[in-house]
Amino acid sequence: MGVDGSGVEGYVDFRGYRTWYRIMGDPANAPGRRPLVFLNGGPGVPWPDRHHWFEDLVAAGRPLVLYDQLGCGRSDRPDDPSLWTVELFVAELSALRRTLGLEAVHLFGLSWGGMLALEYALTQPDGLLSMILVGTPADVPLFEREARLLRADLPPYTQRVFDRMEARWRPATGRGSGEVHPGRTLRQRQRGSAVMRRLVPVMTARPVQRLADPMSAVPGLTGLATRIAGVEWARRHVVRLSPLPAELLEAMVGVNRQVFDTMWGPADPLPLGALRDWSVVDRLGEIHVPTLVANGRYDEVTPLQAEALAESLPDSRCVIFEQSAHLPMLEEPAAFQEAVLRFLDEVDPRERTVDVPGPEVEPGARP
Question: Which end of the chain is more exposed for a tag (fewer CB within 10 A), N or C?
Fold first, then answer.
């Protein structure tokens, strides 16, 4: 398939739904450079339409495969909380590779996407060459303990909002309506991004942040107050840029709160959903593919967690970006790209030099 830098798009059929994907770059024109498959975070937070960092990677000769996991972005959005399990997303990644014929790949997992990459690697799939894990927890109980320490540094009025939500929050139950909503259109995403550009500065303003405290004491307003408090958290521990990058605003528009709330919880520092006890720490020794663990110094997934993850993986290295939080590809794009390309270039030559055995020959037969 010939593909230019902007990519070609399509859908993969998966369990009766449609998963959107985009291929950027042409694998046929990149000998020895296998595709890098991007696993989005959240859960339920899609990739933006355009990201200069994706385009820079393609310009450097690296083919990319992006996809929005089921339930978010341009993929189908079924209304069914019972769907959202780790098993579903591991199976979806397998289906994507099978349908697109991705025999050998590198994985790039951001946040939850890194958790998914770890789960997928533990199935020991053929053709997995390496992983890049960015802001990835390997143990949610440890994340929760570290998040409590970070919450203690927030303004008291913001702390109270999170405390109230933690006390009141209950996960969604049941199977929902079962209705399947189509993925967000380009026009919907553009319109939503414009709204977010106007809304975020209002939510960031200190009077509004303070107002969230009494709002959170009103049962019907606790959710909205938590969203407002979440902006202060994000400013410190997700992306330390002002104004917020357009790519992040666009991704926020495509979020599916049902997926996020069901699996993670009501806010980043409150992992109260189905993943609250998730951990693969005891199984990390089973993963033998080369792995780059990348984190920001101010990441909500603290450097302590990143370094522990890297130490537990048999073939890994850890890079901490000193000026970044959770999204170093936005905060330190040049340094981040250099680290990623250097790692991939180290891994690909090893893959190219592997001897491929020829057909077996019977003893005494002529080859």
Answer: C
